[in-house]
Write a structure and sequence with these properties.
Number of domains of chain A: 2
Helix content of chain A: 25-40%
CATH architecture of the largest domain in chain A: 2-Layer Sandwich
Oligomer: homodimer
CATH topology of the largest domain in chain A: Nucleotidyltransferase, domain 5
Strand content of chain A: 15-25%
Distance between the termini of chain A: 22 Å
Shape of chain A: globular
Largest interface: A-B, 47 and 47 residues
Largest sheet of chain A: 5 strands, mixed
């Protein structure tokens, strides 16, 4: 029986899903890894995948397709761009995979794009032809689907919502070198930074934070009535609502899904985010829905499998 | 022989193109019209189209498809939204057309979207899967094509680049009720307004203008070294370059085409526009090309015919 692997590469581990050729999830496995830059690291990945196969009665020869996502730009042709802080040798891993699974077609995708495809296939965007999944995490990324097709972009920058300019007057620089990017206000580190600034402006002490991206503690402070936390989250909502209003004037999707680590606080900020979107958008687009993503941290794994099956010729009518 | 009509509706006339079923343009005809809101007006259109057919040896029964563009939102399903200043009764015209050409499939499109499709089919975007055509005219509109498909949008607002916010600090309102829209700086009326303001700030007299959208005279002044005209066109380029930089973070096309009435001045502002785009965009997208549209005011007519053929089942593989 033909089997398909969906492989989501994280910072310290990979999450692999084993699917049948018809798209049913058989089993998942978390494989702890270091940086995927040499043969030893590739061997750990291959070993883990082989184990996932054998415990489910399948052999490496059964793998007809594998999808693999990377935390960087992948263009419309599936080409992985050079990653500045190389955590991954995509070409090396590709060669190791091809050696271990000789019957396999391999597809690459950007991680957030893969998550968007996962939500389209099995999650909150099922049956929705045009939508965007916004992942609020360490940074802000998005996966854009238009007419049922992922928009990776000519240079792999499709869905780089984190770099929509929301404040042309910003003086501090974003990681990209530009100023006033959405990411500066709506990423986890952006929200924590805003919170600390709001505290210091009010001359109050910040709650204890577990590091520069600990939005859970900021959310907690918000719940207990902390004004500085409220201001930080308002700025996040206003910035994100403004950015999505810009997206609507360009591709006008019917649905925005909010995911990523901070997406878990969706209920807390949903009302304010929706109000900000409505306040900033063209009246025509005001009925676009803003909902939480459904598949959590398994979305990319699903999307990887879907893209793998697609590149192997499935879903063709 | 099956024939196809591409019909571009303008303010005071319609431009109709007669095509063979395989997409060859046979002949065009300009038909002067008033507002297309009653049977008399529809009869003028039908009469003109029948004449175009008969002078080319074809009969109304030969028409297998017709595409018609309207100056307002049309959604992904081809539904024409209500137009606020009704110049056109789309349903009425549809019924009249159906009566006159009984074998015809009719497709509607937004006018700028149709022009984008025309450029993709026979113009400057041939063979380019993802691009946007920006029409700089009385307003600023755009047609977006992603993976070879027009993006009309869930609410018909796909490509509303004129309403990308480029200046959150703007105090005067755009026609849409929001503030700081691209259209306020990069439409013909926007450029003329900027020019007049720049003149008055400098205490110099504006050149003679033939009305509130006479950018030709502003371009002329620019060529003869007028500093106020230079400032107005710089603001236009900066605003448009900034807006296209936002578009690139969302759909990352490889090509922008500049069309519309003001597109005829492309050579004059191309260098400054390209520099503004590069200054504002994510470094990844900096190689997107900015070129003039090729089909001028026939682009929409071509696009209408293409969309008509498509809705009648042509181009299916």
């Amino acid at each position: 029986m033909g089997m398909v692997l969906g492989i989501d590469i994280g910072g310290t581990s990979i999450k692999a899903g084993l699917f049948t050729e018809s798209g049913t999830l058989v089993s998942t496995k978390k494989i702890p890894t270091g940086k995927l830059v040499n043969e030893d690291a590739f061997a750990v990945v291959i070993g883990g995948l082989e184990e996932l196969l054998s415990t489910n009665g399948a052999s490496p020869l059964d793998v007809v397709a594998a999808g693999l996502d990377v935390p960087g730009p992948v263009d419309d042709n599936g080409q992985v761009a050079m990653m500045p802080n190389a955590e991954l040798d995509a070409e090396g891993l590709k060669a190791a995979m091809a050696g271990a699974f000789p019957n396999m077609t391999l597809a690459f995708a950007n991680d957030v794009n893969a998550a968007a495809v996962g939500e389209m296939w099995k999650g909150a965007a099922k049956g929705v032809p045009s939508f965007a999944l916004v992942a609020l995490g360490t940074g802000v990324g998005a996966g854009v689907v238009v007419s049922g097709k992922l928009v990776s972009g000519a240079f792999g920058a499709g869905g780089e919502f984190g770099h929509i300019t929301v404040n042309r007057g910003e003086t501090s620089a974003c990681g990209c070198g530009r100023h006033g990017c959405l990411e500066q206000y709506a990423s986890a580190s952006g929200v924590v930074r805003s919170y600390r600034r709001e505290c210091s402006e009010r001359g109050i002490e910040a709650v204890h934070l577990q590091g520069p991206t600990d939005t859970l503690s900021v959310f907690e402070a918000y719940r207990s009535g902390d004004e500085a936390a409220k201001a930080a989250i308002s700025l996040m909502c206003d910035s994100l609502g403004f950015a999505l209003a810009q997206v609507s004037t360009i591709i006008d999707p019917s649905l925005y899904l909010i995911g990523g680590g901070m997406g878990e606080g969706f209920d807390l900020f949903a009302q304010e985010l929706r109000a900000a979107f409505k306040a900033h958008c063209l009246p025509t687009c005001a009925d676009a829905r803003i909902l939480p993503a459904a598949l959590g941290n398994e979305a990319a794994m699903y999307g990887d499998a879907y893209l793998a099956m697609k590149s192997a010729g499935a879903f063709e009518s």
